[in-house]
Amino acid sequence: MFNFYQMTDPEIQRLLKLPKQVSDPPTKNWRTEELHRRKDFGLVSKDGESRFRAFARQHVRFPENFSVGLEYEPDDGSDSVILLRCNGPHGDFNRAVDPTHPHYHSHIHTASAEAIEAGERAESRAAITCEFSNVKEAIRFFLNAVAVDANDQARFFEDDLRATLFDQMEFES
Description:
Layout: H1 9-17, E1 20-24, E2 31-33, E3 36-45, E4 51-59, E5 66-73, E6 81-87, E7 107-110, H2 113-117, E8 126-128, H3 135-145, H4 150-156, H5 158-161
Antiparallel strand pairs: 1-3, 2-3, 3-4, 4-5, 5-6, 6-7, 7-8
């Protein structure tokens, strides 16, 4: 059972929109662990009151299968809460073949008070999006969606923000 304090939807939205800066920079290169590439980094609200962990994952064999997310780390001893995940299509999560299901498309999981109150993962609900179609676009979208300082974006995510013709294949070389 999760030890979440009760979050309201306005509190979730406030945390997402809170201006943030990088507190623990990501490594320049992606780290490979088994079948995923990954980057992790820390964020803190500009007022220093709230801490977050951010992550990016991408499947090595299926580059369209990725996740970029934000996890809130409360300082009151309660469990961390994933507030947002920007995912590529990954199909069979629910074991139901339903092409209209969000997991068959790029989609965004956003935490909700309703999911928390129901005992589900905070970000269990998803909506289809056209905001991104690959991991680089998802990182660009994510950094803006969670209000990461523009100077920190340029400083720490230069390679991830640079679009290339080969975004889907870069990590294979």
